[in-house]
Write a structure and sequence with these properties.
This protein is of the alpha/beta class. The protein contains 6 helices and 9 strands; from the N terminus they run E-E-H-E-E-E-H-E-E-H-E-H-H-E-H.
C-alpha cells in the first residue's frame, strides 16, 4: 500500500513506497517529475526525451517530424502538415519548434516545405528548428535558411530560446 504525503509545491502529490508488501517493493508510485530541479514544464521534458511527438507549453508549440526522409514522394503532405502547425502557432501568437531529429534526408523539396511554412508565419512569429544533423546544418547555412529560422541543437535549447519571448 502507498501513503500519500503532502509536498511543498502546490498541487503535487507524492506517494511513498511501502516495501512491507511484496507487490509494492519494486513499484515506484511517485507522481512527481523525475528531475525536480528542472525548470522545464513536464510536457517539454517528455517531448525532448522523445516520449511524445507533440507538446504545447504556454504559447510554444513543439512538433516532431515523423518521416526519415522529406523528398519528392512526400514533401506536399509534409508541407501541408507544417503550414497547419504554423497556423496553430499564429492563432496563439506563439512560436513553433520543429524537431527534425528523425529526418535523415531533407531534399530541396523538403526545404521548399520549410519555406512555405515560413511564408505563413505571422509578423513577429518564430519558427525554431532543432535536431539537425551536421550535414543538414551546413545545408541550412549554404541556403541561408539559418536566417529564416532559429537553429538550436535540441528541443530543450529551442524551448529555452523562445519561451521567454512568447510569455504573456
Amino acid at each position: 500500500m502507498t501513503t500519500p504525503t503532502p509536498q511543498a509545491r502546490r498541487g503535487e502529490l507524492r506517494h511513498e513506497r511501502d516495501t512491507s508488501h511484496p507487490r509494492d517493493a519494486d513499484v515506484d508510485r511517485s507522481f512527481a517529475p523525475a528531475n525536480e530541479a528542472s525548470d522545464l514544464p513536464c510536457q517539454v521534458a517528455a517531448f525532448a526525451e522523445g516520449r511524445i511527438d507533440q507538446a504545447r507549453a504556454g504559447r510554444v508549440l513543439m512538433v516532431c517530424a515523423h518521416d526519415s526522409e522529406v523528398g519528392n514522394h512526400n514533401w506536399e503532405p509534409f508541407a501541408r502538415w507544417l503550414v497547419d502547425e504554423v497556423t496553430a502557432a499564429n492563432a496563439v501568437e506563439g512560436a513553433l519548434i520543429l524537431d527534425l531529429r528523425r529526418v535523415d534526408r531533407l531534399s530541396s523539396r523538403g526545404l521548399r516545405s520549410l519555406a512555405l511554412a515560413w511564408q505563413e508565419l505571422a509578423e513577429g512569429g518564430t519558427i525554431a528548428v532543432c535536431g539537425l544533423s551536421p550535414v543538414q546544418r551546413e545545408i541550412f547555412a549554404i541556403s541561408h535558411y539559418d536566417r529564416l529560422f532559429e537553429i538550436y541543437d535540441d528541443a530543450v535549447a529551442a524551448y529555452r530560446g523562445v519561451a521567454d519571448r512568447v510569455r504573456n
